[in-house]
Amino acid sequence: MREDFEMRHPIYLDGFATLPLAPEAREAMLSAWAHPGNAGSPNIAGEMAARAIADGREAVANLIGAAASEITFTSGATEANNLAILGVARAALRLKPHRNRILVSAVEHKAVLEPAHALQSEGLEVSIAPVDRRGRLDLAEFARLVDRDLLLASVMMVNNETGVIQPIQEAAALAHESGALFHSDAAQAAGKIDVDVDELGVDYLTLSAHKCYGPMGVGALYAAAAAPKPAPLTFGGGQQSGVRPGTEPVALIAGFGAAARVAKKRLSSDREHCAGLIQRLLEALEQRQLRFRPISGDAPTVPGTASIQLIGVDADELCTRIARHVSLSTGSACTSGQIRISHVLESIGLSEIDARSVIRIFCHRYQNSEEILSAANHIIEAAALSRLETGEVHQ
Predict the structure, then answer these.
(1) Segment (H or E) for 332
(2) Are 223 and 231 in contact (CB under 8 A)?
(3) Entry pTM
(4) Residues belonging to the active site
């Protein structure tokens, strides 16, 4: 029976990509869908939709210690990051035209790197702050790159491949010392670790619902009340103070809000539970003498996560072998028809051969020890059959 169940429902360890939907979020969305209404309509249905949006906005704001008025909903973290980089840079340039540089870390998500590079066509320069061998921001190098020409800096709070927690408070303080603005992509952080925008000192913060047990298709951008309002990327009916116009997706926002409320309530218990699961999994690998090393070394990581190099194992082959039983991701990606290692692994100095042995694991709140130990057994068995060829990589 267990084997049949796993074939239909693989043990899900790909939480960096997305997390399961919280039952509370599902219920909130079903309730919203059962009562259609447009928040812009002057009737009772419209008022109910507006209330659902307001409640969702309040819950999301509470998760990060913000005011509801500082939250703008988007279609996801990608749009929020684009709004934070493109929208903020364009707005800030009007106030500080002498500043012409954007600073981002080397391990940012492409949703930050690409809009930053797109600003080069508008006359801005882009600097890349390096990370150390553990994948953590090199604060000394970051400080060296901060000067009076800097307009905006962006450093993600938690990396989406390694789970490493970045020194956001320190980086934000360095940026502010020069008079620059600071943004952090917290898509992988909110709902998993403590996030307080006032303590961190950030001007802008990106959030994603489906990375904290909410629905796909909705995210948010926090913009501090004292910071410049981002210039809109789209234009329309003026919703959300014109920053992000368009009819708000009531059900998705209700689901996001419900997930945020649950995450805030369960933050401590989730941390303990997920940390225990990943410890059991890694101990099981060690006990069966599967050789591996954590990519992040001793750097702080999100509880429940691990990015590990399985020594001598072809990670892509391993993931294929266990796909019916366990869902995992590797450190490689297909770009323009070529298999390449991720820019994150390149940034921390991994060779192409070593990167081909990397898997990333995320144990989530709805899993138990039995599932995790079963997943470990599948990984161990597949590893013995997935030896890495150290020759040339074939396309």
Answers:
(1) strand 332-335
(2) no
(3) 0.94
(4) 334
